[in-house]
TrEMBL record:
Superkingdom as given in the UniProt entry: Bacteria
Entry keywords, A to Z: Antibiotic resistance, ATP-binding, Kinase, Nucleotide-binding, Transferase
Annotated protein name in UniProt: Aminoglycoside 3'-phosphotransferase
Residues annotated as signal peptide: none
Family from the record: Belongs to the aminoglycoside phosphotransferase family.
Aminoglycoside phosphotransferase domain segment(s): 135-218
Amino acid sequence: MTFPTEPVPIPDVVIEIAAGRPVVAVWVNELGGVTFSVDGGREYVKVYPAVSAHLLAAEVPRLRWATRFTPVPAVLAHGPGWLHTARLEGRSAVDPRWADDPRTAARAIGTGLRHLHEALPVDQCPFGTPSWVPVDAPQADRLVVCHGDACAPNTLMTDDGMFSGHVDVGDLGVADRWADLAIATLSLDWNFPSEGPGGFQELLLEAYGVAADTERIAYYRRAWDEEDPLTG
């Protein structure tokens, strides 16, 4: 996901939901999906093209289940190709606020994933494995309910640098914790370029409370590259 750099047309459904309140496009992705802020960020509406509308449909039950245990947006309404949610405290870990402080962002992402993995009960999870995780994956180091798309933008942070929640949980499911950690550490290189080897990976894993498992990291990164998790 990236911040929009050009004007984005506002779909009719967003105009209807906004009911005269201000609307701003705040995120776009490679699938043509757009997230709109309504009323200064009090609410959000995600709109996806028909070919990927199933991704939003998958997110609705996951949000409703996960919100019982961990901070994720509350579902206000949804329909074919759109999802209307309430504001969740914080801003994305890749917000310009953190551009000059990637160390704080990396720690918050690690802390947030640890919270997610400890809060969501595996034995109560009604969802399967994230779509991109191979069915023949190695025996788990620790089986958890994974975010499924643990890239840096999907962690929210308060302005004092603390983890405050997660968004975009449409691929949430049960898997080895390294399915999340491998992608979270990888995404640091995309969003916070570093001159040193490994970038800020060590800080993220330290905040999570685990040493790098190089074999599992390599395995799950290969799996991520081989199957696009956004298209399922």
